[in-house]
Structure to design on (634 residues):
């Protein structure tokens, strides 16, 4: 019985020993197989340190590969607390070189952290100062590569490109919107230290930084430069509160140029107020569009077959009464008897009130929404506004009338640009975009490509063709004549919108605008110019904004390879304007007959014959009266 008890106890002890042994084996197996990487990493962290090496942010290029945003290599200062032997001496020497207080540097050195990045005093150190620090050859003091964003064109495209913070993170514009693509992966120099932080004599490990991805924009840098120059001229000539220009390809939605005034230098954004640097007016500002909005009403009226521009007649007495409201035409006394094509050419408010009446509230409101007003366009930028429309149920006859000519509602410039693009591109409302491709920095492999995106079909191709015709006539014969370019076909519409403040319209304070496109029969560029309260000039879109648009469109002809077209509408001239006349064909005529036929021009001859074999410009081109014609003789 006694031995039986001992045997039983031994079995129990043996059982527990076996269980414990199995647990140990399992634990060792678990550590070796499942936890090895984690524990090995934690062990390594106890004795290795990483000195960060900044990566380059992805470059930003225009549509033709020209650099808009790049990087400069700079230096940053790092302290390893436990490796610095004489903290006071080190702090004094560094403070003198960086021209900062001794106390600030000493405070960085005394921080009880493994690695102290000296921020902001030790960031983006100039080369000469970095060399002086390097020559000190002090233990625990490291100079590391850092990348600093650089914008070679300073304020050009600043609101759209945006800017980055001191740590190279995007804070606005495309820099913010595409930050995850533009941001690279930092590298490091890995060294080994003992428990006290002293550097061990082991080989360092270098991990190279990886640059961020590159962006190629739809922006044409040459057109952008022209736009920026014209905006600078606007500010000098008219001292407006602000000014906006956007240009796009109406057939694709690609933005060719976008700029605002006031502007800022993206390299020095800290020197500007928040309103200036963070408000991209082209997508953020909302205001009554005025007469440029009439293009929407015109398109709707043509699509719904409620008007014939050539046969229907309208009499403009200068004012029309809608319920208790008197709506005036801009021309005192009105335009008298007109066709509806004349209504468009003359930008006649009472005539558009009639079109709004024929459409009816529901139809007009439906087209306003179809053309994208009241919703964001979806452009690839942060901060886009929506605009303000009447609620349909709140639209009575007066609200319907004012909406028809662009008053009482609020839109953004980008909405207006895309709506008119839909009216002239065959009827398709498109989503605008600025980034064309995103690509790998080393291989240039494209990982993302933006494409044309149709939001909806708004009007028919037939209607769109008629809208283009009417708007070409506005430039040739109407309020947009200051945007006419001889030998090219330009369409467009002026706008003069009275500003609202505290629910009341301001006297003598307007946003004057012009929206134009060319060639009128097959548009490659659409341009919107809006100027807020220009000083020292009569505030009309036709007198202020249209000439600016003409300059930009003229400069864009060579960029977009637009060829002359002699099939466009002939311009009607005012008495005070420089006239252009069509050059007669004198090919094959002798010198005597040429002089008679071209008596109103200056003639330059080349060759020694007496018969013309060709002229420059060629016959059919419009040239200034008194202009020079070169005659090549046989």
């Amino acid at each position: 019985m006694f031995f039986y008890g001992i045997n039983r106890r031994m079995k129990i002890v043996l059982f527990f020993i076996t269980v414990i042994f199995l647990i140990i084996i399992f634990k060792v197996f678990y550590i070796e197989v499942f936890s090895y990487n984690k524990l090995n990493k934690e062990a390594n962290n106890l004795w290795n340190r990483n000195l960060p090496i900044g990566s380059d942010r992805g470059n930003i290029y225009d549509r033709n590969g020209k650099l808009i945003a790049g990087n400069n290599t700079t230096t940053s200062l790092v302290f390893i607390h436990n490796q610095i032997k004489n903290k006071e001496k080190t702090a004094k020497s560094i403070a003198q070189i960086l021209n900062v207080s001794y106390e600030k540097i000493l405070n960085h050195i005394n921080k009880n952290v493994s690695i102290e990045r000296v921020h902001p005093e030790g960031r983006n150190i100039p080369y000469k100062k970095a060399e002086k620090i390097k020559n000190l050859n002090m233990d625990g003091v490291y100079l590391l590569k850092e990348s600093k964003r650089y914008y070679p064109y300073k304020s050009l495209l600043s609101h759209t490109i945006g800017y980055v913070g001191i740590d190279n993170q995007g804070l606005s514009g495309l820099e913010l919107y595409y930050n995850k693509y533009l941001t690279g992966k930092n590298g490091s120099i890995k060294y080994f230290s003992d428990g006290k932080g002293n550097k061990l004599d082991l080989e360092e490990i270098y991990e190279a930084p990886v640059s961020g991805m590159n962006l190629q924009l739809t922006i044409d840098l040459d057109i952008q430069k022209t736009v920026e120059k014209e905006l600078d001229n606007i500010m000098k000539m008219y001292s407006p509160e602000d000014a906006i220009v956007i240009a796009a390809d109406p057939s694709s939605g690609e933005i060719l140029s976008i700029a605002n005034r006031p502007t800022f230098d993206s390299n020095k954004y800290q020197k500007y107020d928040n309103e200036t640097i963070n408000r991209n007016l082209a997508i953020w500002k909302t205001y009554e569009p005025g007469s440029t909005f009439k293009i929407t009403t015109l398109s709707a009226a043509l699509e719904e077959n409620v008007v014939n521009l050539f046969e229907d007649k309208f009499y403009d007495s200068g004012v029309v009464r809608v319920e208790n409201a008197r709506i005036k035409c801009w021309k005192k006394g009105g335009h008298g008897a007109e066709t509806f094509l004349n209504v468009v050419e003359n930008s006649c408010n009472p005539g558009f009130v009639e079109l709004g009446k024929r459409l009816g509230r529901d139809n007009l409101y439906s087209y306003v929404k179809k053309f994208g007003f009241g919703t964001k366009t979806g452009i690839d930028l942060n901060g886009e506004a929506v605009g303000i429309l009447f609620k349909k149920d709140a639209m009575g006859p007066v609200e319907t009338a004012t909406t028809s000519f662009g008053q009482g509602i609020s839109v953004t410039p980008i909405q207006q640009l895309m709506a008119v693009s839909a009216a002239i591109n065959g009827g398709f409302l498109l989503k605008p975009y600025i980034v064309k491709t995103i690509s790998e920095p080393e291989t240039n492999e494209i990982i993302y490509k933006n494409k044309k995106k149709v939001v909806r079909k708004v009007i028919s191709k037939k209607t769109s063709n008629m809208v283009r015709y009417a708007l070409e006539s506005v430039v040739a014969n109407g309020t947009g004549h200051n945007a006419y370019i001889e030998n090219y076909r330009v369409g467009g519409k002026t706008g003069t919108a009275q500003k609202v403040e505290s629910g009341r319209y301001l006297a003598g304070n307007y946003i004057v605008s012009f929206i134009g496109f060319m060639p009128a029969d097959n548009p490659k560029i659409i341009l919107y110019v809006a100027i807020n309260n220009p000083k020292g000039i009569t505030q009309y879109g036709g007198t202020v904004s249209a000439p600016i648009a003409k300059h930009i469109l003229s400069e864009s002809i060579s960029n977009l390879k637009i060829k002359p077209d002699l099939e466009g509408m002939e311009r009607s001239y005012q008495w005070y304007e420089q006239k252009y006349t069509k050059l007669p064909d004198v090919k094959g005529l002798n010198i005597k007959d040429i002089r008679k036929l071209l008596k109103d021009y200056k003639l330059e001859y080349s060759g020694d014959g007496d018969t013309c074999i060709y002229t420059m410009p060629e016959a059919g081109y419009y040239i200034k009266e008194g202009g020079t014609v070169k005659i090549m003789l046989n």
Observations:
- The domain at 221-559 is CATH 3.40.710.10 (Beta-lactamase).
- The two ends are 142 Å apart (CA to CA).
- The CA atoms of residues 380 and 598 lie 55 Å apart.
